[in-house]
Task: inverse folding
């Protein structure tokens, strides 16, 4: 299928790359078809991808794997909230965090409270609010990555 995107123009997309979000995502409940996109020329330079709506080209959210920004991310989620995903074996689930990326890179944040969860087998996704009280909506990515680098001796 030919997909119009916010950052990559028109892209040919295999049907197996289409993700269905039966309930949409928070704030965009009317959009149900998405794809994860990234800059192939810079695939190793960044861990940020884009959750691109296939129904509205202007809707593209920067997303990141939580383990790229923190060593520990174990959200508490009631099983019934994952029902739209189908079979939810842990190894089939991909967790992503929506990001806010202002011009000042030291103020980049990720929403740990409302992860995007995708079942890689069924190609279905949800965004939901987790029960963890200590997970902020605006987790400072820059500070966390700097601390991780310090611990790794970089």
Result:
């Amino acid at each position: 299928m030919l997909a119009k995107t916010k950052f990559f123009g028109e892209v040919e997309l295999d049907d197996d790359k289409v993700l269905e979000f039966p309930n949409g995502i928070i704030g965009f409940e009317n959009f149900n078809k998405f794809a994860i996109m990234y800059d192939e020329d810079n695939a190793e330079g960044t861990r940020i991808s884009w959750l691109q709506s296939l129904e509205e080209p202007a809707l593209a959210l920067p997303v990141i794997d939580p383990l790229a920004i923190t060593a520990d991310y174990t959200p508490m989620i009631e099983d019934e909230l994952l029902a739209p995903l189908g079979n939810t074996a842990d190894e089939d689930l991909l967790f992503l965090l929506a990001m806010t990326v202002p011009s000042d890179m030291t103020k980049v944040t990720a929403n740990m409270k409302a992860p995007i969860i995708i079942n890689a087998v069924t190609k279905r996704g949800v965004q939901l609010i987790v029960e963890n009280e200590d997970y902020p909506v605006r987790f400072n990515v820059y500070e966390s990555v700097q601390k991780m680098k310090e611990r790794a001796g970089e």
Observations:
- The first helix runs from residue 141 to 152.
